[in-house]
């Protein structure tokens, strides 16, 4: 199978690329990895060139504008990357007969639920970032109704790039107290697990429409921080709860955006593992990378 990964230099793209490369060494797949410098997905000429060069059968789109607060003031850029880019990519896939797995976000939901959002629950984003991502979802599904997949993820952390988890590891290593929001709930998701889910979707011809690609269970940011401190061998009492209003960020994030995973059964795939198990395994890799107090030599 011929794969093309867009946004291959980012946090999720790094894990997807690693997993596909290992699989290709065993099974003979071809993998083309394109980071932001190699491909701007909003440029039609660039897309035509890479599709002609690589002739992908499956495209995994990890390219995105992810600055949630920045989207509130830089709406044009967020819309260009998160909506126009996926639209042009879907059009290129349609023209070349390729399948597309496009990564989206839990931020397309309003956050007013009390139980996990199913894949078919009507989106209603409350942030500029969420609106830009929803526009990208709609563009992909409209242009690839039978071969396009939207994979929503959430609270992603991985080996590459700073994340909430990497920051908490550093704070734990330094023995620093930290105030963390305790009234927003979601699903901490290890990029290695999400990468495997995206590849499963790419390999399954029956997969189309919306899937939720996260770990399972739910937590507040405060609960996640305490678990990181505990697993890092630090005092979890250093993590202090505050409200989202006290935190005072530009974009008021949804209070509850936990995602359901019912559609995985339709393609015979295993359900996602619990976020705590995933975090415990991930920290074996992450602690050596991030457990260095700021300012250390």
Kindly estimate the percentage of residues that lie in beta strands according to DSSP.
Answer: 15-25%
Looking at CATH, the homologous superfamily is NAD(P)-binding Rossmann-like Domain
- Tally the structural domains: 1
First-last Cα distance:
45 Å
**Average pLDDT metric:** 94
Radius of gyration: 19 Å
**Strand-pairing-aware structural class:** alpha/beta
Tell me the major beta sheet.
6 strands, parallel
Provide the CATH architecture: 3-Layer(aba) Sandwich
* Helix-strand sequence: EHEHEHEHEEHEEEHEEHEHH
Family: Belongs to the dTDP-4-dehydrorhamnose reductase family.
Keywords: NADP, Oxidoreductase
Domain RmlD-like substrate binding: 1-286
Pathway: Carbohydrate biosynthesis; dTDP-L-rhamnose biosynthesis
Give the helices and strands, then pairings.
Elements: E1 2-6, H1 11-27, E2 30-34, H2 44-54, E3 58-61, H3 75-96, E4 99-105, H4 128-143, E5 148-153, E6 156-157, H5 164-174, E7 178-181, E8 185-186, E9 189-190, H6 191-203, E10 209-212, E11 219-220, H7 221-231, E12 239-242, H8 244-247, H9 275-290
Parallel strand pairs: 1-2, 1-3, 3-4, 4-5, 5-10, 6-9, 7-12
Antiparallel strand pairs: 8-11
């Amino acid at each position: 199978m011929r794969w093309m990964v867009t946004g291959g230099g980012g946090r999720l793209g790094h894990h997807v690329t690693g997993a596909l490369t290992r699989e290709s060494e065993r099974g003979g797949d071809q993998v083309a990895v394109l980071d932001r410098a190699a491909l701007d997905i909003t440029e039609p000429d660039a897309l035509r060139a890479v599709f002609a060069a690589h002739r992908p059968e499956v495209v995994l789109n990890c390219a995105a504008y992810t600055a949630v607060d920045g989207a509130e003031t830089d709406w044009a850029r967020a819309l260009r990357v998160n909506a126009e880019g996926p639209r042009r990519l879907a059009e290129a896939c349609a023209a070349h007969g390729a399948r597309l797995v496009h990564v989206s976000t839990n931020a397309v939901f309003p956050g007013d639920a009390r139980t996990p959002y199913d894949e078919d629950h009507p989106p209603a984003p409350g942030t500029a970032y969420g609106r830009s991502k929803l526009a990208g979802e709609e563009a992909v599904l409209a242009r690839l109704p039978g071969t396009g997949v939207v994979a929503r993820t959430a609270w992603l952390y991985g080996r590459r790039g700073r994340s909430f988890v990497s920051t908490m590891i550093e704070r734990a290593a330094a023995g620093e107290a930290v105030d963390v929001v305790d009234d927003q709930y979601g699903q901490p998701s290890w990029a290695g697990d999400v990468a495997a889910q995206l590849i499963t979707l790419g390999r399954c011809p029956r997969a189309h429409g919306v899937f939720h690609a996260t770990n399972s269970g739910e937590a507040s940011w405060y609960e996640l921080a305490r678990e990181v401190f505990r697993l890092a061998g630090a005092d979890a009492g250093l993590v202090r709860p505050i409200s989202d209003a006290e935190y005072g960020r530009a974009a008021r994030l949804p209070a509850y955006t936990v995602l359901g995973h019912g559609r995985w059964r339709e393609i015979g795939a295993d359900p996602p593992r619990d976020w705590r198990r995933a975090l415990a395994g991930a920290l074996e890799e992450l602690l050596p990378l991030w457990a260095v107090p700021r300012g250390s030599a």
